[in-house]
Specification:
484 residues, alpha/beta, Rossmann fold, six-stranded mixed beta sheet, 21% strand, elongated
Length: 484
């Protein structure tokens, strides 16, 4: 039976009714816009028309491509369903579509086998003539695979000539991968915008535009204007509010993809929030710290902006690492939300609140300084247990606590004043005892951790941070921060 192509059929309206606000689909469409925009014949896109998205090209030929988008690995039954729908649309409106594109994270079993066979045929076809045995035999194999999938009614020529697969999507639980693809494609295809730090913001604004435009055509002129406006407004907005930096790894709730960020780092694959698991020092050193350093270098290379607004819901070690990467000595100022306030380093530090420092000497053969910084809870007992369990020697042990008492109210200026005092107390201890490594144990606000990291310069020794795990496991070594 021939398919009804009307946009008012229940089948074609299903996405518009049932999937409003579905963020992955919007993120995928936004990530592909730069490539479409680089084609001078690209004219418009429509979300939730005859498919998840339709893309129109006007030129010497009037062309349209139809996309079906899935945010998961596709099983054989779903593969069969999508391919059959593609073919029915081709039969009912043969002149309407140039290509049908199946976008997903990949295919399982028979679906992947068929996709691989089709790609092999396409890649090899230029080497042969149409009736050469290698092509004929390969196409016969494709026919057999179609039959195994229950798609014997779909001609293999249709798949070879009209169906494309887009599976280079990565893990879609967050959209860093698609955002990175967006920025990378802009750099490659739209050189007029290359190097602009506002590109991640363009991506966010574009996603929001697409999210709101269900069954509403978005034309090229609108997209061009959106690019220009977002890129043009970025310097003024960033000078006022800072370069927005989003670190995603420690949230209880799913990350809201509707918000836009200038820089986004997705570390969610390397952390387990429920169990408080953090990566080993090796992964911090080989992957996470270099990502922070790359982000800092990118900002420095493309802009004179030095105000960074962090939006982390982060483990404490990440707070130290964030501040360390965007340190005072590198010329940065940072803002970070703390409860109902915004703490920032470009304020006057409070000198009224003091940090108490107590030093205990240990084994003179060691060159390690143990620092336990107790701001909201006393960590000394837990550190005792950890050192005993590890049978670790130390040259000296520095205990730092607020004069006003544990868990006392801390404001932004107070935190900044504490950070300066803590830095000098640690550095003085390092110099006094000739220590070559600092072991830092901390219980306090995330914002203060970032401020302390921001001050980690001229420490004369690298800082090994520790993260508390379960009561049974105690502490675990996390990031190792070099002395700037």
């Amino acid at each position: 039976m021939q398919e009804n192509s009307s946009l008012l059929t229940p089948e074609n309206r299903g996405g518009a009714v049932g999937q409003k606000g579905f963020n992955f689909q919007d993120a995928y469409i936004a990530s592909r816009v730069p490539e479409w925009l680089s084609d001078p014949e690209f004219s418009a896109l429509l979300k939730e028309g005859s498919g998840d998205v339709e893309v129109r090209f006007d030129g010497s030929e009037y062309r349209r491509d139809l996309y079906q988008v899935k945010d998961h690995l596709v099983k054989s039954s779903e593969f069969r369903e999508v391919i059959d729908k593609f073919y029915q649309k081709q039969v009912s409106a043969s002149a309407t579509w140039r290509y049908f594109v199946f976008a997903c994270r990949g295919f399982l079993n028979k679906g992947e086998s068929l996709r691989s066979a089709i790609e092999t045929f396409r890649g090899s076809a230029p080497m042969y003539r149409g009736k050469d045995p290698p092509l004929v035999d390969t196409q016969r194999n494709i026919d057999e695979k179609l039959k195994e999938l229950g798609l014997e009614n779909v001609p293999s020529d249709f798949l070879i000539q009209k169906v494309k697969f887009d599976t280079d999507l990565g893990d879609m639980r967050t959209d860093q991968r698609l955002g990175d693809q967006f920025v990378g494609t802009v750099e490659r295809c739209l050189p007029q915008y290359a190097g602009n730090l506002g590109l991640r913001n363009v991506y966010g604004v574009l996603k929001n535009k697409i999210n709101e435009a269900i069954r509403i055509t978005i034309g090229r002129i609108e997209i061009d204007d959106l690019f220009r406006e977002a890129v043009t407004n970025f310097p003024e907005r960033a000078r006022q509010d800072g370069v927005t930096f989003r670190l995603y790894h420690w949230e209880d709730a799913p990350f809201d993809l509707s918000k836009s960020w200038d820089i986004l780092l997705d570390w969610s694959q390397d952390f387990e929030r429920n169990t408080r698991r953090v990566p080993d020092t090796e992964l911090w050193t080989s992957k996470l710290i270099p990502q922070l350093q790359d982000a800092q270098r990118k900002i420095r290379a493309n802009s004179d902006l030095r105000l960074i607004q962090f939006f982390p819901s982060a483990c404490l070690s990440a707070g130290f690492a964030l501040g360390w990467a965007f340190s005072e000595v590198k010329g940065y100022a940072i803002r970070i939300p703390q409860r109902n306030d915004i703490w920032q380093t470009n304020c006057s530090p409070s000198a009224s609140e003091k940090i108490n420092a107590t030093i205990l000497e240990g084994d003179s053969s060691s060159r390690d300084l143990v620092v336990h910084l107790s701001m909201v809870a006393d960590v000394s007992f837990k550190v005792d247990k950890f050192l005993e369990r590890q049978q670790k020697k130390f040259r000296a042990r520095l205990s730092l606590t607020p004069d006003s008492g544990l868990a006392s109210n801390i404001t932004g200026p107070t935190a900044l004043g504490y950070a300066y005092q803590i830095k000098h107390a640690i550095r003085n201890a390092v110099d006094k005892f000739g220590c070559q490594k600092i072991h830092l144990f901390y219980a306090g606000p995330l914002g203060l951790a970032a401020f302390i990291g921001w001050q980690f310069n001229a420490m004369h020794a690298p800082i090994q941070c520790y993260e508390e795990q379960s009561a049974e496991e105690g502490y675990k070594a996390s990031c190792l921060l070099a002395s700037n």
